[in-house]
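Structure ticket #2291
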Amino acid sequence: MTVIEAIADWCAGAAAFSPTAIARAEHGFCDTIGCIIAGRSDPATLATARAFETRPRSGTSAVVTGARTDPAIAALVNGVAAHALDFDDNFHGATTHASAVLVPALLATAQAFGRDGRQMLEAYIVGLEAQAWISRGVNPSHYTAGWHATSTVGCIGAAAGVARLMGLERNGIAQAMSIAVSMAAGVKGQFGTPVKPLHSGLAARNAVDAAQLSAAGMAGRLDILESRQGFLTLYGGDYPKGWSQDPGHPHPNELAIERFGLTAKRHPCCGATHRAIDAILDLKRDNGFFAEDVASINVTVTEAHARNLAYSRPDNEMQARFSMQYALARALSQDSLGLSDFTHAAVQRADIRALLPLTELSIYDQASERAATGRLPHRIVVDLKDGRRLEDIRQAAKGEASLPFSTDERRIKFLDCAGFSGLPADEAQERFTRSSHPAALDVLGLSNFELSG
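Resolution: structure written out below.
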């Protein structure tokens, strides 16, 4: 049995998902809908819509811009919007922005094929599991090499979820993944540009297209993940793990959504900054210092994270989302970071730019990274002008499964996203309520589900 066949076999038969799995899938869905709404007017979203949208109200699947179009284009535009502000969740089980690909692809497919909310959530769990399974063979080497796993691993895994939602059997799911391997693309060198959120949109669209091609009879090699000229060889990086000779389920008694959970974002910027932001905010609170008291900050991160954070002196809001220096300048100056901190005007503030030189990044040595059995923590050292040295070691950021958002925190984030997009408060609250329980949506409810205001 090939790796794809093993994954497809599980995807076709998976059932009886736990309440924890369903609840986390609902949280991921709701969080992503908020991010889609927040990103609806971003230049990346609008450019994608102008390029690909068909005439409004001409299709089955809702687009955040107000159009209705075919499911692949709806997945594309909504996928860009979901990731445009980098406020969407992370999935450490695959090093992906899993929901920014899965939710747009599955919502568009459910509307097009008349599926209900429960079927959509089960397909979400299946797609997330497929992402984790595929990632196990290539990450972290794949990601460190410069591949944006959201648009490579994410695309292939999402194709499995879409195929399941369409009602394809084992071989149809397998072929959808095989086809998606040939669509997997996206390089991290585009971080800090509008092409970065385009990656998630393309991955969502490609997942829908791959499943539809499979349903129409297109077929590829089922050993394409592990074959000599396949995904592992070409995309695996310098030290890929590969899959064992038995490619069966790596954790048969625990799903990836239960084992890893999803990391909802507290701050609207690259996840590689979040542990350091949390640490600075806590150190300030506990030790009573201010920005003017700081002599220097050093943050030790992995090589992959350092490569993500390529902009020590960002020129615009896109670059600022991938700048540890900017994130910590903001954390030194205020008690929280919000969407309004990532605008062109905000990035150009002289008082914030004066703080950028305080922060320096250090990188773990390669031996430590390759020997690690899990994620390495971020190490934060703050030297104050009065001679004090404050240190913190952060393994997890707020929003991870070990530090989850409360219901109220999830609501506040959703309302902030909706408010940023211009939705009135009462409409924002109604959308939060509706998006919080997608499992309860029947076929009619899903077909009428709107993203635009």
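Closing remark: The first strand starts at residue 61 and ends at 62.
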